[in-house]
Amino acid sequence: MDGPVQVPVDNPHEDTEWNDILRKHGVIPEKPPSPTPILEEAIVQSRQKAYEQRLDDKQLDELNELEDEEDEEFLNQYRKKRLEELSFIVKTAVYGQVYHLQKPDYARDVTEASKNAFVLVHLASSMSNNGESRLLTSVWGDLAVTFQNIKFCEIQGDMCIEGYPEKNCPTILVYHDGDIVKQMVTLKELNGPRTAQKDLEGLLLGLGALTSRDPRLTRSDRYSNNASSQPRSHDDEDEDDDDDD
Q: Would you say 197 and 187 are in contact if contact means Cβ atoms under 8 Å apart?
C-alpha cells in the first residue's frame, strides 16, 4: 500500500497562494494572528489613558492655572477629587505626635491601632552616641506633625525586645492591618546618616501609606511610588564619598 503523499512546502509561514490552498485542506496549520493590530490597539489605549490621567498629580492651585487650557467640566471633576482628598486628610488627622511606647501596651498601641491606620515604630538605641537613632528621633517628630493620619511611635529596642542588639538600632517597623509589612534595620536602606524626611516619605509612598498627590509631601512632584524606598547601591555610596573629598 502506498504511503501518504508528501506535499512540498518551502515555508509554511509564507503568505503564498500555494500555502493558502494547503491551509484550506488542513495540510499545514493556519497562521497565527498577527500581533501588529493588538500592539497598535495597546498603544492607542495607553496614550488615551495617559491623556485622561494627565491631571492626576496636579494640586488645586495647579488646576486653577489650567482654566484656559482645559475643559471646565473636566477641571471641576479633578477639583472635586482634590477637595475630597483634603477632607479625608483633615478627618483622619488624629495623631500628630510621637507616641512613646511601654511594652505592656504594645499590642494595643501598635498592632491593634494598625487596623485603623499605618503605624511606624522606631526601635531606638539606648546609647547617646548612636547618631542614626538620634537623627531618626528628630525626623520622626517632623513626620508625626506633617502626617497626622499616620501613627509614629518610639521605644528603646532592648526595652521592647529583651537582648535586642544595639547594632540593629535604629530599626523601623511598619504595621498595617495588624501585621508587620516592612522592617528596616538601621538606616542603610534609606540614606544612612544623611536620611531626611523626604527619604521616609519615599518609604511611605512605596508602602501605599501616602499617594504622590498628597500636598503635604516634600517636593512631591519629584517622587515616584518607590523612589526613596529602594536600597542604596554601592555606586551611590561611592558618589557620596567622592562628594566628601
A: no
Amino acid residing at 201: E
CB 186 within 8 A of CB 132: yes
φ, ψ (nearest 5 deg) of residue 41: -65, -40
The three three-digit cell numbers of residue 127, written as one number: 546609647
- What are the pLDDT digits (tens) for 62-90? 545 555 455 566 666 666 676 766 777 77
Instruction: Give the separation between CA 86 and CA 61, rounded to whole angstroms.
Output: 13
Q: How far apart are CA 150 and CA 160, in angstroms?
A: 21
Q: What is the pLDDT of residues 14-27, one digit of tens each?
A: 777 777 887 887 77
Beta bridge partners of 200: none
d(CA 186, CA 170): 5
Question: What single letter denotes the amino acid at residue 15?
Answer: D
Phi, psi dihedrals of residue 123, rounded to the nearest 5°: -80, 100
Helices 131-146 and 197-207: crossing angle in degrees, nearest 10, is 60
Beta pairing partners, 151: 119
Please state the rounded mean pLDDT for residues 133-153: 96
pLDDT for res 25 = 77
